[in-house]
Amino acid sequence: MAVEIAHLRTSGMHCTSCSMLVDMTLSDLAGVSESNTDLASGRTIVTFDSDVVSIEGIIDAIRGAGYDAERVA
Question: What is the pLDDT of residue 73?
């Protein structure tokens, strides 16, 4: 098990429901143990098992929900 924490810049959100949808989408993704999206800052912090899901898979899931994301340092 390779637990990682990624910080993402998430864009395209307009309301609290948008940030909740990002978190719900990621919570359904195998390998993601925690997700916290903040609408005001446009940031998502994701804790995940990189042996199960890649950061690219996480970003693809966010894009599939209708938003955009990129990893930040």
Answer: 75
Segments of the chain with pLDDT less than 70:
none
35: which residues sit within 8 A by CB, 6+ positions away? 22, 23, 26, 27, 44, 45, 46, 47
Phi, psi of 45 (to 5 degrees): -110, 125
Name the percent of the chain in helix, strand, coil, to the closest 5.
30, 40, 30
Domain range annotation of the chain:
3-72
**Number of C-beta neighbours around residue 42 at 10 A:** 16
Q: Could you tell me the sign of the dihedral formed by the alpha carbons of 65, 71, 72, 73, in that order?
A: positive
The pLDDT of residue 1: 84
Q: Whole-structure pTM over 0.90, yes or no?
A: yes
Class of domain 3-72: alpha beta
